[in-house]
Amino acid sequence: MKTTWKTALAGALALAVSAMLIPFEGQAASDIYDGKVITLIVPNSPGGRMTRYARLYAPYIAKYSGAKEVRIVNKKGGGGVKGTNYLWVQKPDGMTIAFTSVPTLILAQLSGSEAVQFDATKFVYLGRAATEPRVMVVGGTNAIKSIQDVQKLDRPFINPSQGTDEDFYTLAVLADALDFKLKIVTGYEGQADTGVAIIKGDGDGLLTSWAYTIPLIQNGDMRPILTIWHERHPDYPDVPSALELVKGDGKESVQAIVNMLAMHRGFFGPPDMDPKATAALRDAISRAAADPELQAEGKKQGLILLPSDGETEQARIVQITNASQGLVPVLKAALASIK
User: Fold this and answer.
1) Which one of 8, 57, 251, 324 has the minimum C-beta count within 10 Å?
2) Three-state secondary structure along the chain?
3) pLDDT tens, 13-71?
4) In this model, does residue 1 exceed pLDDT 50?
5) Residue 134, C-beta contacts closer than 8 angstroms, at least 6 positions apart
6) Is residue 332 part of a domain?
7) How far is CA 232 from CA 120, 128, 133, 248, in A?
């Protein structure tokens, strides 16, 4: 079924309502975590948006699980791969979990990256905190005004990149599907660093979230040229969706990426995680998502909150991975291009 902005919000509201109806709210569903410390691995920059989401959720997960503390540990490197490799070998007792962009893990695995030591289909998924459409933007003073201008360039489109994350791979798929040349320049530190690069003119453009980029669009520092989602952004109806523009095999590839991006910011644990710990954390994360104080704080920070329960995300992961096998050649080529 087609996912729209309205249905996504409705789904989030339904989850919140159902969670709030659970009896004994504020009490843990199990005593497995009573007085314990849960380690939450965030394989991203300490100052980045992913860590901000983790910090938002951590005290509420502690509250509803009964844990003494949810302690955030950043293990950045390899576009999220380094910290995820660390989680892969942890004891499956539920005391160490992770939070990051799930599409990054899937895409890194499909690309055949030698750095990947995990199988994303074997993690235990505990719940999604948020998802949001991605947008392709260029610098506000760049001569490129539209995606058609990118396709007509007589040179590669230059993309400053923070590493092999979901935006890296998504842009490679778009370049293949929309038939434009792409040059990815890695080595940048986080979203703020890549954003400054295109504003200064050190690169042409990048993929990012609408929430991050709207203030920069409004002040003229960035210009949106393409939405990577099921439909156009309601506030920017003149910016086309990638799914409108691609044809043939390319459309299937872009659809796979869009479906994958819907998972986005999620919590997960090691393979074969203890069933009681899994149930307790799925319950705690759902309750946290429904907590009015968390929602208010998220809104204050400008963090989009579109949660999904762990069971739904677990079912989605295998389906998406299997449907994305056709992306493998493009992803491998993208990875090879920066070696």
Assistant:
1) 251
2) CCCCHHHHHHHHHHHHHHHHCCCCCCCCCCCCCCCCEEEEEECCCCCCHHHHHHHHHHHHHHHHHCCCEEEEEECCCHHHHHHHHHHHCCCCCCCEEEEEEHHHHHHHHHCCCCCCCCCHHHCEEEEEEECCCEEEEEECCCCCCCHHHHHHCCCCEEEECCCCCHHHHHHHHHHHHHCCCEEEECCCCHHHHHHHHHHHCCCCEEEEEHHHHHHHHHCCCEEEEEEECCCCCCCCCCCCEHHHHCCHHHHHHHHHHHHHHCCCEEEEECCCCCHHHHHHHHHHHHHHHHCHHHHHHHHHHCCCCCCEEHHHHHHHHHHHHHHCHHHHHHHHHHHHHCC
3) 444 444 443 433 444 556 899 999 999 999 998 988 899 999 999 999 999 999 999 99
4) no
5) 166, 167, 170, 207, 208, 209, 210, 227, 228, 229, 261
6) no
7) 30, 23, 9, 20
**Distance between CA 178 and CA 303 in Å, rounded?**
31
pLDDT in tens, 130-147: 988 899 999 999 999 999
Domain boundary residue among 236, 259, 282? 259
The tens digit of pLDDT for each residue in 196-239 reads 999 999 999 999 988 889 999 999 999 999 999 989 999 999 99
Is 325 inside any structural domain?
no
Query: What's the whole-model pTM score?
Result: 0.76
Encoded tokens for 140? 């506000």
- Measured CA to CA, the distance from residue 337 to residue 153 in angstroms comes to 19
Domain that holds residue 59: 5-130+263-317
